[in-house]
Design brief:
- By secondary structure, the protein is α/β, with parallel strands linked by helices.
- The chain folds into 3 domains: 3-183, 3-Layer(aba) Sandwich (Cytidine Deaminase, domain 2), CATH 3.40.140.10; 201-262 and 585-652, Urease, subunit C, domain 1 (Roll), CATH 2.30.40; 264-531, TIM Barrel.
- Helices cover 37% and strands 22% of the residues.
- It has 21 helices and 25 strands.
- Helix 1 packs across helix 4 (158-169), helix 8 runs parallel beside helix 9 (334-347) and helix 9 runs parallel beside helix 10.
- 51% of the residues are buried.
Length: 659
Amino acid sequence: MSQYSLSAQAYFKIFFHAAKHPQSSVNGVLLGKEESGKISIVDAVPLLHHWTSLSPMMEIGLDLAGRHAESLGLNLVGYYQACERIDDTALAPVGERVAGKLKDGFKNAVALVIDGENLASGEAALVPYVSQGTIWRPYSGETAFTAGSTFQLASPDLPQRAIVLVREQALHQKFGDFDDHLEDKPGNPKAPWYHGQLPDAFGTFVHSEHLGRLGILLDYLLVTDSSGVITHFAPGQSSESHTILQKSPDCVFLPNGTFIVPSFVDLHLHAAQFLYQGNGLHLPLMEWLNEYAFKAEERLDSDPALARTVYTRLARRLIHSGTGTVLLFGTIKEETNLILAEVMQAAGLRAFVGKLSMDISSRPSYKESSTETSLKAAHLFVEKCRDLTCNLPIHERLVEPVLTPRFVPTCSDELLVGLGQLSATEDLRIQSHLAEALDQVEWVRKERGVEDIEAFDRSGLLTPRTIQAHCTFLEVPAFKHIHSRGTAIAHCPLSNSYFSAEPFHLREALDEGVKVGLGTDIAGGYSLDLMSSMRQAVSVSRMRQGSKQIAGKEGKSLAIDWKESLYLATRGGATALRLTTGVFGVGVPFDAQQIRLFDEFNGHGIGALDFFDLEESGTVAASSPVTIEMVEKWWCLGDTRNQSRMWVQGAELDASPLN
């Protein structure tokens, strides 16, 4: 027979549900997973305390709970109930039917009945039922939830902790179920009835607060408030953490082989170009823009339905790849950019959306009619984008407008100056392209008689609010100037390999104190996964160092290592955007992703990862801490299969695969 383990979160929810409705029957379902014959029940979804029959409400609740479980990569593994009479521990007929239905989808489904008479005794007070064919009977083996039993609690002190939380803090009164959701009475819990904000989390956290320094924090406790801001982050053995753990109703204990890391920040992505991602990379930049980019952007501007479809898919792909914050180039048309903003806000992503400003174009049908028209359109978009979120609480306003002069070849000097003035007046971020490709750089020199950087600087567009993409043709003097202006750079190593004759001088920029983050540059770069950008950044820097050595040049190494690239993908990008995210600390919004390295029961790696030493012994795997070598292996070989959960501003997003 399979072994069953009940987490603290699942147990507390069952306990609170029964305690809140002592005169009523209550029921719900259990969420979990099976690995190597061991079933971990990690959560419970409280369903009903009123309509406890197999009613339409029950069917709807089961369906919603099933979808929620699937979005987390879990199964519905069981059913629980409490009877109306405290001395009744029989599984009700409706329970048998629901458990049987769950067994059709999960063959080792179990049912738990609450023993009301012993609920306050300090014992588990749960009676397991298992199926024998179509009949459900109480488990007849060793006493359940005792040492060595087939049924175990995550910690033996859970019943006593639950009693304290009910008697001293009345936390059960704050507990809601699907019935409460249906009745929608004043005072009912406002959070989603199935799950919502991140509960207290205990386990391993990985972050890089400073370039080149990686922190692997074992056995830390992280707590967030209702606005998704971290209120406590400290070692679990600290006195304050110990006090919180004693009172926490639903602390999540991360399994071994799992860690939480800040979500990625993509500093440069052309949303409309996601339409043709992976095509057209054989052309030089200026030809590629005319042949692919402008056509795709123009197409979405003329087809709002297609734009919404493309942007919705883009949002899902970003979440699934671990990106929680993104700086977006949009298109020219206001409506299309507002669709982009709406989609990103609805998806729960932290997004900065830029309506393109361009009064010059090599494609006559794709530009704004005049400088005045372009400036008015930019101002109007800013107002309407802000209006999308103005009625939301501040912590839920995830989308912001950003001024976006495409690059110097598509903007007159008058337009650049006007946008610089608008940015200063409205305190707006700015994004553009700077010194990206040889044909673009030479065009600016010929037509304007200056370098790109001069055109931006004299227009008031090199500011602490500015992020310039690429900058591959800049040298140390230019980096010194950019640093003095407080401007940040979006390093896009993959697209630079295709469209620039020069690699970005990353080490020199960092040494001059320039703020640098990473960008995918869809569709100039073909991969939406920022992990590809991290790896490419390291590869390019090592090639530059190799060329330097071959040339016999001395001096500091130009190479960066994987830990530095992780900083660029998280804290570096956040700093470029003047955000406090990208790290874990008190007062910082919780933007994060959960990574699974290996199966805690058998040591088998997840996805492309292998941990042969751990596979030798499941016991070793269950007690093995996350090490720097493991994180490095994930950095090198990991992919979306390792990402299991995702949060922005403390709210969990749907990180399930699209297909």
